[in-house]
Fold Alpha-D-ribose 1-methylphosphonate 5-triphosphate synthase subunit PhnL.
Amino acid sequence: MPILEVNNFGKRFTIHHLNKTMHAVEQIHFSLKPGEFIGIIGKSGSGKSTILKSIYRTYLPDQGSILYDSKRFGTIDLSKATERQMLFLRKYEIGYVSQFLNVMPRTTSRQLVEHSLLEMGESEDRARMEAENALIHFELDPKLWDTYPNTFSGGEKLRLNIAMATVKQPRLLLLDEPTASLDQQSKKKVREVIEKLKRNGTTLVGIFHDIEFMEGLCDKVYDMKTKHFIYEKEDECIV
């Protein structure tokens, strides 16, 4: 049974001052089994991020359905879920990593990662330990652990963003260019976490321009141009 099924998905945006409506994306179909990883490729402006933001319900879809097999709610159409349901799913089941860090002000990087675990119901001791393990894994300088991330470089912010999302081990994780500003060593650390999450059953949907990063990692590759899979499972992941 699929954990995520996107059927005939479409999204439009209205530019009110021009009185114009634009189709960002339409007729998208794909499904994922638990523990699978799909990479979505396509040129800039093809609608890749729109798909992820609609699954996370930052955007409200205009067409089709996004069926998610929730541990709490059973099969639920995310395009029709209530705000209360979405808040629960974002807190406990669905994670999102973007290229940009948007966090609580005057909160240190250590506290941000700890908070991700505390809101899941973890004890303070375990949250502290797991947060430190995550910060160490992503090689965030210990000198930065107790400072505010608004002073961080782009790569440091992105590594913190990934640590906050992955430490929760969500059932479904959405990755929007998570390696965009990272060096090769940091990309390796991200790959190690994705592989571990997959082994533990997390399902992932990711957008990557770095095709080499996807090599051997993805189970499926979906092309926004053809609106079909150009790779599925047993073959080599070459796109």
